[in-house]
Design goal:
The complex is a heterotrimer.
Chain A (H helix, E strand, L loop, with lengths): L10 H32 L6 H6 L1 H34 L5 H7 L1 H5 L2 H11 L8 H24 L4 H9 L4 H29 L3 H7 L6 H11 L3 H29 L8 H4 L6 H30 E2 L2 E2 L2 H5 L11 H32 L5 H15 L2 H11 L1 E2 L2 E2 L6 H24 L2 H9 L4 H30 L4 H4 L7 H9 L4 H27 L9
Antiparallel strand pairs in A: 1-2, 3-4
Helix pairs in contact in A: 1-12, 1-16, 1-17, 1-18, 3-7, 3-9, 3-14, 4-24, 6-10, 6-14, 7-9, 7-10, 8-9, 9-12, 11-12, 12-17, 14-24, 16-19, 16-21, 16-23, 17-19, 19-21, 20-21, 21-24, 23-24
Chain B lengths: L2 H19 L9 E6 L7 H11 L2 E6 L3 H10 L8 E6 L3 H6 L3 E2 L22 E13 H6 L20 E4 L5 H14 L4 H10 L3 E3 L2 H8 L11 E5 L2 H7 L10 E18 L5 H11 L2 H4 L2 H5 L2 E2 L8 H6 L11 H20 L1
Parallel strand pairs in B: 1-2, 1-3, 6-7, 6-8
Antiparallel strand pairs in B: 3-9, 4-9, 5-8, 5-9, 5-10
Helix pairs in contact in B: 6-7, 7-14
Chain C lengths: L1 E10 L2 E11 L4 E5 L6 H9 L6 E6 L2 E2 L10 E4 L11 H12 L3 H14 L15 H13 L5 E5 L7 H18 L3 E5 L2 H7 L2 E6 L2 E6 L1 H6 L4 H6 L5 E2 L2 E3 L4 E5 L8 E9 L2 E8 L4 E6 L10 E6 L4 E3 L2
Helix pairs in contact in C: 2-3, 2-4, 3-4
Classes of the chains: A mainly alpha, B alpha/beta, C alpha+beta.
């Protein structure tokens, strides 16, 4: 038959939803990465590709990278689980504040967090793999709490209740029903945590001590210290292959575990804790997380007030004054960060939103769609160092010359944020009852009008949440900002680094004060994004 | 397509067009681009002064740490990101020169320079500042214990100084590498390994970077760690005075002068620069008194021009080592990776 | 008039619609009756344009709709569980099609009021649809589908999710509405009471085929085959003939000799009681009796059959 299979979609729309994200990915990710890898493989380098792959050091590094990422993912899920459960089942005062605050660690510059950890970990633990895993859990708790918690809060509790009436004991019910229904969300969260831990760099260097190195650290070492681009290129291909494998496994898992339907509006699912036991669970789940996340954060706050042997607001007052460390006042760095992150958010929401439509649009998730979905995840796991070099050699002339294109900073920030937008928006789109679209079409709405009148209003809240998250991610992004890093336009993380890199008590205090400001901006923006609701009965 | 699609497409297209519009070429350059590392800082007034005098807008492109900035420059050799590269130090100098990055330029201002800083006779690079990596110690810590502070590298192997020292990993940190080179310069190519063995026995702590070593481990900084001796810079003691409220009368930290290793930072006109003339003007300006007198307080390094005045805090609290340890750049380039590898086996494994 | 002409749809090689042809005349209500899985909903989706047929055509007043997308067909559709837009209030739902058509605001408002009056929900404009009862939701769905005055109204088991009392009431309302508005409608259901109550004509579907179509009386009088007969509730099939239950008279027998069989069950269906009699031969025979004093299970009975009530199957 001629024409599209699904009469509610149009060929132009499908071309747009697949085309724009793919073009974006191809231009701003695959092309620069391919450029640097090609340069590395075919130009100078002391070692042959085979040497690098067969080197026992490479084997050790790959092994360590993989197992620490797996262990970090497991630990993160374990640590996040009680709070995720509480947020997924109970309505309690301050719930949205909790959801906003857990996001804070996720966006803090690694160096800042690592320094905070060094300050609180007992000396016997402060170096080595335990410290690495704990820090990874600290960073990534937000991913599990938000991805899984949001999904949980929309899971119809009646399914579990039905199982209860069939005689299933609570534990059995949890394992066989709840966990099974949560599985796709857990797989999605695990994939993201794995990727972040897999490519972890600063945390491993600082908290692991000189004995531990991830692939990312080794790539940096080869490319920058030893200047063996061939080795770096080979290693980044190894890294990309590992990441692609992980993404492939998890997207397959996600698709296989996906159970359609069973979703309800949050307000119908959440209930107030009633019994003393339930109150204790809520208090324990949130309190435990508060201690785990709060301790390192509290150290940062304390240090921002530290002056000499006492405390004062001096570091905050100094933020408004010009400083030798920057060409702008630190406050201007806050404004710059917000502007850049805002631009990145717009890009991420547009590109990621289109991709979410593409991913959710295909009824039965075809192999092509899974591939597309997985490809969008790759930037999370690619070597930031090599991508940076790739940009330099790929975009060195018109039409894209990054020297004269300041918008490339938000573009690169958006690369990291897009997978999150897809992951937040697509499940909501997928959960929209197909008959609502059909009903609208039967009432005379064209496919475009259906998307505007049905999909968009229903997905607004998810888009807002995704935007808040994308904004937070972009706010804390440091790697990409370095591409431009125009000193008259420093961003918050850049300014924090600058202060941290200078001796003297006030500089340290100012660095921590800016970190506190970054925390506050993050929490507030995520909180506000969560408040955006439809006027009338929004779904999810 | 609906209006909504059109809006989307328009957004994407205009985003791409913006990029294209930004790259209009041709004409007389109105700006000069300085490519440098993340630690580069210049005072606003000094930057404005250059722009006023030269009629060129100074754009600064910072691309990662010194190693990353150099790697990017090497990757773009011939079609560079900017006009001038600043931030190559003597440790990386040979790599930069081997990469054929620069167009020679002999600035007339070189006449004002102390010739000991000029390492490239072809003037492909011009020295701009120098800073020494030295052991710093916490005066109060030693005073409280009635212990004499260490006065030499040798002292640190003495059991009296067990567990006092924190150093940076030379594989990941510039001052860490400088300190390793200092020990090689001091004990020779066959003697340094033994020195480090002793340091290891005496409980040296190795951390990843300067931020960790100085801000967290060192007892004399805001972090109030438990290690009173740290590898840092000759300029760190004045910083501990300037950035402390209330200002102390004496610097709370001091340097072990005989441990200092010289680092000189160079600038050069990049081959293929779009504004070569502006690049030369910028190098001249970097050797001017105005810029040279700005570097101590902006980057915590020392000027290379003879008659540049030091800020009073530097005059009072900084030590400019008279005969710092040094190694020839070519020798560093030839051996760096091997030394770092040997050091790793010796100290870490 | 709406015509489906030799429509075929296959899902994974299995025929969902197998050469279905069906006409709905202007102002006519045709009900499609069939068990679940018989393809009746697929037929609706094809007519609506939501499902592309593998072959065959849908024609509206002689125009082939094959290349007309759903939103331009001018066909209304009412879903089983309403599929109301929860992000709109009641008026927003009813107004939806009018807005799509580009009606002026005041026209939309008055038409919405008119329709809500018509379905008995006057004053419900600003109510959230989530707060409505099932019956009210179905009325909103109906008003929404009727608002843009579709050429044809399709209804997919619209009363399926409602309880019987409510269903009976809505059934009457629907019949009245169809009559008043002279709606051309295709109504799909698995419930023969609904099908016979509403349909000017009834089409019976089985395994993707229309096996019989005709007026309710005609169907009832002459089922096309044994399966149709059984589906209509005519269980007494013997030797290629059907014995209508109301043609069977059952009387209590005094003794075993006078009896033809034993009553197995007695179930009341409104005014009649359906008796199942186990005959001496071992066969069962259904009888519909209207007497209040009817035999009970276990009673010995004598059976007589009115020859008028025997239908020979073709």
């Amino acid at each position: 038959m001629d024409g599209p299979r699904d009469p509610l979609s149009s060929r132009a729309w499908r071309a747009l939803t697949y085309g724009v994200p793919l073009a974006f990915l191809a231009i701003f990710f695959l092309y620069p990465l391919a450029a640097i890898v090609e340069r590395g493989l075919f130009s100078g380098g002391e070692s042959s590709a085979l040497d690098v792959i067969t080197d026992p050091v490479t084997r050790d590094v790959v092994w360590f990278t993989v197992w620490q990422a797996v262990a970090s993912t497991a630990l993160t899920i374990a640590v996040a689980f009680p709070a995720t459960y509480v947020l997924g089942r109970f309505a309690f005062p301050g719930r949205s504040v909790v959801r906003a605050v857990v996001t804070v660690p996720f966006v803090l510059p690694t160096v800042v967090v690592a320094l905070a950890f060094l300050a609180i970990l007992p000396e016997s633990l402060e170096r080595g793999w335990i410290a690495i895993l704990v820090a990874h859990a600290f960073f990534n708790v937000a991913v599990v709490v938000r991805v899984v918690g949001t999904f949980w809060a929309n899971l119809d509790p009646r399914v579990s209740e039905a199982a209860a009436t069939l005689g299933a004991a609570p534990m059995r019910r949890f394992v066989e029903i709840t966990l099974r229904l949560l599985a796709p969300a857990l797989a999605a969260a695990a994939a993201i945590v794995f990727l972040f831990s897999f490519t972890s760099f600063g945390i491993v260097l600082i908290l692991g001590g000189p004995r531990y190195a991830t692939l990312e650290a080794e790539i940096y070492n080869q490319a920058v210290r030893i200047f063996d681009l061939r080795a770096a290129a080979v290693l980044s291909l190894v890294q990309l292959a590992c990441v692609a494998l992980a993404v492939w496994v998890t997207t397959r898992l996600e698709a296989r575990l996906a159970v359609r339907g069973q979703l309800r509006a949050e307000r119908d699912v959440l209930r107030k804790p009633r019994t003393l036991g339930e109150k204790a669970i809520v208090l324990g789940g949130i309190g435990g997380l508060a201690v785990f996340l709060g301790l390192p954060l509290a150290v940062l706050v304390e240090r921002s007030f530290a002056v000499g042997d006492g405390h004062s607001l001096e570091a905050y007052r100094a933020l408004a004054r010009p400083t030798a460390a920057l060409l702008a006042t630190p406050w201007e760095a806050v404004v710059n960060s917000i502007v850049y992150a805002g631009a990145a958010t717009v890009i991420a929401v547009v590109v990621g939103g289109l991709a979410a439509f593409a991913v959710a649009g295909s009824g039965r998730r075809s192999r092509g769609t899974r591939l597309f979905d997985g490809a969008l995840m790759l930037p999370l796991g690619a070597s930031a160092v090599m991508l940076g070099f790739g940009f330099v050699i790929a975009f060195d002339r018109a039409p894209i010359d990054f020297r004269s294109a300041p918008w490339i900073v938000p573009v690169v920030q958006a690369l990291v944020a897009i997978p999150f937008v897809v992951r937040i928006v697509a499940p909501t789109l997928r959960a929209i009852d197909e008959r609502l679209r059909a009903a609208a079409a039967m009432l005379g709405a064209s496919p475009g009008r259906v998307r505007r009148e049905i999909d968009l209003p229903i997905v607004t809240r998810a888009l807002a949440i995704a935007a808040g998250f994308a904004f937070a991610i972009s706010l804390g992004e440091f790697g990409a900002t370095v591409f431009l890093a125009r000193p008259d336009r420093p961003t918050l993380p850049v300014a924090i680094f600058r202060f941290l890199g200078r001796p003297g008590e006030q500089n340290a205090a100012q660095a921590y004060a800016l970190a506190v400001v970054l925390m506050a901006v993050t929490a507030v923006s995520v909180f506000l994004a969560e408040r955006i609701r439809l006027r009338r009965g929004g779904w999810i | 397509m609906t209006p909504w699609h059109n809006a989307l497409v328009a957004t994407v297209v205009s985003a791409l067009a913006l990029g294209a519009a930004g790259c209009g070429g041709g004409g007389t350059p109105t700006s000069v681009v300085l490519v440098t590392h993340d630690s580069f800082v210049v005072s606003n007034s000094v930057k404005k002064a250059f722009e006023r005098e030269s009629g060129l807008k100074l754009r600064i492109l910072q691309s990662g740490d010194a190693g990353e900035a150099l790697t990017k420059a090497l990757l773009t050799a011939g079609n560079p990101q900017g006009d001038v590269l600043f931030g190559v130090d003597n440790n990386l100098l040979s790599r930069a020169l081997d990469g054929d990055l620069f167009e020679p330029y002999e600035s007339p201002a070189l006449a004002d320079l102390d010739p000991q800083y000029v390492l490239d006779p072809e003037h492909r690079v011009t020295p701009v500042d120098h800073g020494e990596v030295c052991l710093n110690y916490d005066k109060a810590w030693f005073a409280e214990r009635g212990l004499t502070p260490p006065a030499s590298l040798e002292d640190l192997t003495d059991p009296r100084y067990k567990g006092v020292l924190v150093v940076e990993n030379p594989a990941t940190s510039t001052p860490g590498l400088a300190f390793l080179l200092a020990t090689i310069a001091r004990y020779g190519k066959s003697g340094w390994q033994d020195y480090w063995r002793k340091l290891r026995q005496n409980g040296v702590l190795v951390v990843d970077g300067w931020e960790d070593a100085y801000n967290v481990r060192f007892s004399g900084s805001a972090g109030k760690g438990n290690r009173p001796v740290v590898v840092s810079y000759a300029s760190s003691p004045p910083a501990e005075v300037i950035f402390r409220t209330p200002r102390p009368a004496e610097a709370p930290t001091a340097v072990v002068e005989s441990s200092c290793f010289r680092q000189i930072e160079f600038a050069g006109v990049l081959r293929g620069a779009r504004n070569e003339d502006g690049a030369r003007k910028l190098i001249d300006f970097m050797l001017s008194k105005r810029f040279q007198e700005d570097v101590p307080l902006s980057m915590f390094v020392f000027p290379v021009v003879r008659d540049a005045a030091l800020p009073p805090e530097f005059e009072r609290f900084a030590v400019v080592p008279s005969s710092p340890l040094e190694l020839p750049p070519a020798e560093i380039e030839a051996n760096r990776d091997r030394w770092v590898g040997e050091w790793t086996d010796l100290v870490i494994r | 008039m709406l015509r489906a002409d030799d429509v075929n749809v296959r899902f994974d090689g299995k025929a969902a619609l197998d050469g279905v042809s069906l006409d709905v005349g202007d102002g006519e209500v045709v009900t499609v009756l069939g068990p679940s899985g018989s393809g009746k909903s697929t037929l609706l989706r094809v007519i609506a344009g939501l499902q592309r047929p593998d072959s065959g055509h849908v024609l509206l007043d002689g125009e082939d709709l094959s290349s007309v997308p759903p939103h331009r067909r001018g066909i209304g559709l009412v879903f089983q569980d309403h599929a109301l837009f929860h992000h709109h209030d009641v008026a927003g739902n009813v107004a939806f099609g009018l807005r799509m058509r580009g009606d002026a605001k005041n026209e939309v408002e008055s038409r919405v009021r008119e329709l809500l009056d018509l379905v008995g929900l006057a004053g419900f404009e600003r109510r959230s649809v989530a707060t409505l009862s099932g019956g009210e939701q179905q009325r909103v769905a109906l008003a929404r589908a009727l608002a843009p005055q579709p050429h044809v109204l399709l209804l997919d088991e619209p009363l399926g999710a409602l309880d019987r009392r409510l269903r009976d009431r809505l059934l009457e309302d629907l019949a009245r509405l169809f009559e008043e508005l002279r709606v051309t409608a295709l109504y799909v259901t698995h419930d023969q009471a609904e099908a016979f109550a509403l349909g000017d004509r009834v089409a019976i579907m089985r395994s993707g085929r229309v096996v019989q179509a005709g007026s309710p009386d005609g169907l009832w009088a002459r089922p096309a085959d044994e399966d149709v007969a059984r589906f209509l509730g005519l269980g007494n099939v013997r030797d290629g003939a059907i014995v209508r239950p109301e043609a069977v008279t059952v009387a209590r027998a005094a003794n075993r000799e006078a009896a033809d069989g034993v009553v197995e069950s007695a179930v009341r269906h409104g005014p009649t009681v359906r008796l199942r009699v186990r005959l001496a031969s071992g066969e069962t025979l259904d009888a519909a009796v209207s007497a209040l004093d009817h035999p009970d299970p276990g009673d010995l009975v004598a059976v007589t059959i009115d020859p008028e009530g025997i239908i020979e199957l073709p």
